[in-house]
Amino acid sequence: PSAITLYAAPVESNRIFKETVDYFKKDFYGFDYSLLNDLTVNRVYIETIKQGFLLGKPKRIAFFDFKKPSPVFNSRVRFEINRKGIFHGMAVWFSAHLSQKTELSNGPFSKPTHWQQAFLPVREALPVEKGLKIDAHISNQLVHQRMVWNWQVKAKGREVNYSTLKTAPPQKILTDIHFHKHQPVLLEEGKVHSLI
Description:
Layout: E1 3-11, H1 14-19, H2 37-41, E2 45-47, E3 59-65, E4 74-80, E5 85-97, E6 103-105, E7 117-128, E8 133-143, E9 146-155, E10 158-163, H3 171-178, H4 188-195
Antiparallel strand pairs: 1-3, 1-5, 2-7, 4-8, 5-6, 5-7, 8-9, 9-10
């Protein structure tokens, strides 16, 4: 493609929300894993988003012209909810410009392909009514050669920030841990247990 446009829209999907954000809120044989909730909400999920999941019209959030490569974007959009429902997050998809008259999209309005859509969740499901405005700030940045997604959602007087940076250390740290710079050392307690 010569260029790619990214779009986003507010979505409702109880199934996706239960399988991602709410996953660790359930009881696992009496163990409480709710502390992992920060990991589940600060993550981009690859899911199939159907047209019926959308709560509002899609908005363009980025345009990448491959003659001027820059994978970073910073976009503020306002979504207007067009039906009553539950806001679970935002869907993001692309439209690749193959020529002046030909585009290939993985969006919910297009014929399904092997590419799915990105799902940016919110921590708490939010009941919404037609006409409600949701302000979103969606951006990305490179941190140690790792693409980090950030999204902020403001609705009904509440504002919440999310970032994939909260779910894993930057790539440089991972590289340091997994290669020559990291030498595992047995702690004193481990030395004692190995003698028993």
